[in-house]
Amino acid sequence: TGGVITLDPGYKNTGSCESAITFLDGEKGILRYRGYSIEELAEKADFLEVAYLLIFGELPNQEQLDKFHADIKAKSLVDDDIKKILDAFPKSAHPMGVLSSLTSALTAFYPSPVDVSSEEAMYNSIVRILGKFPILVAWSMRKKHGLPLEYGDDKLGYVENILKMMFKNPNSEYEQNPILVDALDKLLILHADHEQNCSTSTVRITGSSHAGLFVSLASGISALWGPLHGGANQAVLEMLEAIKEDGGDTKKYMAKAKDKNDPFRLMGFGHRVYKNFDPRARIIKKAADEVLGDLGVEDPILDIAKGLEQEALKDPYFVERKLYPNVDFYSGIIYRAMGIPVEMFTVMFALGRLPGWIAQWREMRLNKEPIGRPRQLYTGATYREFKSIDKR
Ligand code: SDX
Hints:
Number of strands: 3
Order of helices and strands: EEEHHHHHHHHHHHHHHHHH
Mean pLDDT: 93
Organism: Winogradskyella vincentii
Number of helices: 17
Bound molecules: s-citryldethia Coenzyme A
InterPro entries: Citrate_synth-like_lrg_a-sub, Citrate_synth-like_sm_a-sub, Citrate_synthase, Citrate_synthase_AS, Citrate_synthase_bac-typ, Citrate_synthase_sf, Citrate_synthase_typ-I
Largest sheet: 3 strands, antiparallel
Keywords: Acyltransferase, Transferase, Tricarboxylic acid cycle
GO molecular function, one term: citrate synthase activity
Strand order of the largest sheet: 1-2-3
Strand content: under 5%
Oligomer: single chain
Structural class: mainly alpha
Shape: globular
Distance between the termini: 19 Å
């Protein structure tokens, strides 16, 4: 009957955690991985270096990086029976659903550590998933497009192999395009971790029950898929395409985004934490100009995006609510210029976020965190006597 309910003030809210991996300042638009600024890492490091930094806490020296890459390459095959699982999916399946299922299925073929007491077992599982995940990513795309499955090549770099497995044409030699390699390397760095976002929190809470690494990652992939989270990069492109079809009428879509009766949101805008420009969006916007210029791609969608951004940045509705472009606003434009199909955009986000998820899962386990158990403010009925069915 509406009694006042209070949460036990001493109850430790397991919705948040201590972490030493990524620092965000939402007001100032600052992002640092293990203390290094995202701007410097995007410019001066490569994706595997950043993965090592996030997971183990230090930038690797050349010997450490070479060993890390060699250990990953040694695990860069998947059991051929995985192809039977892949064959069971219809072509209509979204690659995120395929990726989540195959990542979870890896546990059946390669037991991932539940016991983290052995640093060696943990390390082996980490290099194993870093070696196999790009294959699953590429195969989820090849399956969708009816293309034969490709493996990497021992002579190629980590990101070069991702592009080769995605794009190698069965009846011609594969030519690496350094512009695509650099662009993808930078995009993966920019997506590599982001503190306790929805999908990372999902990975941590799944792993807190001592579920293995691979199934914890599979839960993160599912959470990332939502259009309010990683699925936004695909939704941004679909929105920009709709505006283009609509004659580039950005004002109509701005009005829709502000209309309380219209569920439409300006995809790629706003953020739970950043109440300033997302620093990654600045870097990606600059990269979009560079990559499209280097590739000689004229894409009217980029102009529409810039026009929308300019309008939103001076519109009181967006200014009052501190809604700025986020990481997803420009990334899809680069993926599209690289020839990556739109249904793969969120898969590319998952590929970038993989080292962050691994780092966060490892930290949570090494910190011996208790099982995740958020509490609630109960707002339901107070006690009621049971009534037999004839009296209801
Ligand atoms: C990612 O957490 C992370 O770090 C995530 C991420 C990562 O790297 O892991 O950064 C990646 O997920 C980026 C976000 C991608 N999602 C989108 O671009 C989808 C569009 N954005 C929104 O749905 C929204 O901004 C969220 C989900 C990102 C944030 O939601 P909030 O902080 O809960 O904002 P809110 O829903 O409380 O909205 C506050 C106000 C509301 O208006 P009022 O009720 O105050 O009148 O702002 C409005 C909202 O209606 N609003 C928007 C809007 N986002 C918020 N209005 C129009 N368009 C938008 N995009």
